[in-house]
Amino acid sequence: MSTETVPAQAASGFRPSRTLPLRVEARRQLSRRRTSIVFGVMVALPVIVWAALAVGGTPSGRDGSPSLIQAATSSGVNFAFAVLFMASGFLLSVPVALFFGDTVASEASWSSLRYLLAAPVPRARLLLSKLTVALGFSAVAVLVLPLVALGVGTAAYGWGELHLTLAGSLTAGTATERLALVAVYLFVCELSVAGFALWMSTLTDAPLGAVGGAVGLVILSGILDNITALGSLRDFLPTHGMYAWVDVLQPNPDWTGLAEGVSMAVALALVFGALAFRHFRAKDIVS
Amino acid sequence: MVQFGANADRYPTLAGTAHRAVTLDGGSQAVANPAGGMPPAISSVPGLGGALSQLGGLVGGSLPLSQDLPGQYAAFQSAPLDGALQLTGAPSVKVTVDTGGSAPAVLFAKLYDVAPDGSSVLPHQLVTPLRVAASGTVDVQLPAVDYDFAAGHRLRLVLAATDLGYSSPAQPATYRVSLPADDPLTLPTDLALRDAATPLPAWVWLLPVVAAAIAAALVLTGVGARRRRRGHAPAVDPEFAKLPLVVEGLSKRYHGSTDRYAVKDLSFRVERGQVLGLLGPNGAGKTTTMRMLMGLIRPDAGRVHVFGQSIAAGAPVLSRVGAFVEGAGFLPHLSGRANLDLYWRATGRPAEDAHVAEALEIADLGEALERPVRTYSQGMRQRLAIAQAMLGLPELLILDEPTNGLDPQQIREMRAVITRYAAGGRTVIVSSHLLSEVEQTCTHLVVMTQGRLLAAGPVAEITGNDDELLVGTGAMGADALDAVVAKVAALDGVASVAPATEEPGLLVQLDGLAVPELLAELLRLDVPVERVGPHRRLEDAFLTLTGDRA
Q1: Architecture of domain B233-461
Q2: The complex's ipTM?
Q3: More confident residue, A27 or B467
Q4: CA-CA distance, A267 to B516, in Å (whole number)?
Q5: How far is B466 from chain A (nearest CA, A)?
Q6: Which one is the CATH code of B465-534: 3.40.190.10, 3.30.70.100, 3.40.630.30, 3.30.559.10?
Q7: In A, which residues are within 8 Å of B317 by CB distance?
Q8: Phi, psi of B432 (to 5 degrees)
């Protein structure tokens, strides 16, 4: 990039590759209330779950609650995995849908998009900057949840090994490694939601529509995933892999589900991302 | 939850294909057989065994389904396992039993999986009964199971005197049980089984590759990509390099409206130092034109050149253009100052080129500059937006309805700002539907209606000469009017005379004759004069130009 020539006839000091730097876009987004609310919810959720368990007691097996949640109070890692299990299906998709769905559409709704593009920030560059910052924010949101849950859980239930109701237990070290791995896996899973939300964001000037569209996709995919009659077709739903990580919580982990989930998420993210670039590059900006 | 697809080519037999030896600790221990064999230890419940083991698996292995009674068993435990151990087959161990004289001794051998937290699981609830006829060392073969011992877990061998599933001697007795030194527990394993992992479905590898190909195709075939490939060659037109703006044959029809053009075949050019007024009623296509000048929307036909550079989305030459089009666009949660600061940083240009002080002077926001923009009035936003357009003092400034929402005092200041700005050799384009606006600030005009160009040129040329008079008359016959025109034209000091087009009357241009003298002459000629006044220049021109098309 440093060898890039100054474009002829551009203003002095203007280089397309220097427009909308990441830290400028990050500052623009970071100062928004919605950003702090999302991070606040991610930090507060483990505390809320802890409080609920403290008030209501450890869930018993009678009501058919998943075994991970029954064992939530056994140790810090147990608690962290229980919180992740509760958040996996839907909650983690919300910040991702928000950061990606809102990023272009909100600029359009504020009319600031046209001034950025006329600055001029090249359209691909604008989308890339916004995508990167949204990716960073989403990563923080998705990764901060298990981290805080581990901290809250350790403070409340002590540092100890992961108790698995089915397959004995894992040492605290191994379990923490798996927790990190599962958190990264969940983030990768959310890439399909991210791609779809970004595409929606370029389609509409209403941020709520873009975010709602992406959340709607998650809900629809979750409903379809419950229809077992669809059989192996369900493997190709964007949210199908979001609970596959439970398979690695055993002494001999099974990685198949994780590989399938990563494959699906990466594929969907690529296609949706390409659709976003394709549409945004040729779009008439009339907002 | 997970079904292991473990498989091997051949039956490994109960002895396994390989072995692991695990040393068990525990000295000689006494085992009491209670009278009548009651109460018994529980390893499984007859008839319920299978169901119980299922239940144990479901609810949790740590459920104390298996219970040994204190004093009735001997236990020998291993150190925590270094790694996971997959037991497949029947483990064997040597046990020394002292029957204490009451032969035969009946014992029940079982192998527990003990988790680090102390909870223990009896795999499949299986137990081996032994009958030891005389004191001595015996080989014990434990139940054949396929079981996975996790790393860190311990193995515990238990030899109990009683078991619920079996009857045992009624005579009370005490045995001593110990393990021969250096004789470990031997566990059969089958390595072939461990390697049999479930293969990944082929689509796991295929799908991302196919998706990448689709993505590449999507990106490379879009309208934007086609345009980019095509558009590079004629991007620069040296003929126009000195002109701030050249518009040629510009047409735009919005998606969905098939018959109505927003802009149709528009051509004009702007020279350096001009203040160009883009004049037209609402809906004339002024804003659409400006959007095309900024590369925000793509013309269906025609070209725009700014300083000789063809304009497309994100054309670098736009860095020399400042624009304020159709209202302000700010981040509502940031202060006015932060908005300007971040906007300039987004352009990536050096901070010293911004000339923030000049821009802030124009915005004239005072302390409000530090408040979030969402608290601003429309006029404040407007001024801030114009200030943003002037950041970096661009050579071409495009302002769309800049005085909307300003109070009269600010309108006057804005006019002065625009005039001053252009005086430095820079170029300004101002759009407006207000005649007085463009009349007072502009040097040149482009008049549009319904997307079409009506007139273009210097203000004076379009509006007519300043000393032209409109003489309003009552209704006159065409012959009478022609006669009057001929007579007036013959007067000394009259440059030209013509019938007025918009109302009955005459347009007279004087060249030396005073207005009272003209009036006297007209009255002498019996022209029914009703009023005399300056030709209402631009307004008339504007109405004339746009009116018959509306």
Answers
A1: 3-Layer(aba) Sandwich (3.40)
A2: 0.89
A3: A27
A4: 87
A5: 39
A6: 3.30.70.100
A7: 7, 9-10
A8: -165, 155
